[in-house]
Here is the input.
Amino acid sequence: MSSVVNRLAVMAAVALACAQAGDKKKNDERFSPGPASSYQTKQTIEGVSVAAVPYNTEDLAQTAFGKVNPNKYGILPVLVIIQNDTDKALNLSSIQAKYERGDDRQIDATAASDLQYTIQKRPKEVPINVGSPIPRIGGGLKKNKNPLAEWEIEGRAFNARMLPAHQAANGFFYFETEHIEGSRLVLSGMREAATGKELFFFEVPLGK
Here is the structure.
């Protein structure tokens, strides 16, 4: 009997994993950024194009993150697309992104894995616990799942390390700020893979 139960448990686990994988694939298919050339907010230097788009509205955030809108928690996602139209591979392992606000303040990108620890405000729909004032020992109240721990946050982050010639890469950089008109994305640290020569840094205006 126990072997039958074990087999059923394994089958159920496999079915669940397949369903989750299918959902993730569907989400990936729904979110498909265009080429860098298709965006108005872009810059091209010596055959390398960088486009950047702040996902600061509810509609934009939903296309990439589903029900989770990072802006509600003080996190601005900026989609970055890098198109390498040169004949040389690029090393992106030392890439750095900064959000330069209209007031000249620069904000470094926050690692996607750290976002769950940087929530700046509680969303209105999450009530504050007003239960018993007597604390429980050894467990206590059930914790709500951190919304910024959803797989889309890290799964859609920019993580390309190398960019072959005539290829493109995309992903999000996250900044602890609201979007300010007149801001721009500053991207530096891209190098030619063969020589180590650093490319010019990019300054991409982010629009309104």
Observations:
- DSSP finds three helices and eleven strands in the chain.
- Residues 2-28, 120-143 have pLDDT under 50 and may be disordered.
- The two ends are 65 Å apart (CA to CA).
- The chain has one domain: 34-126+143-205.
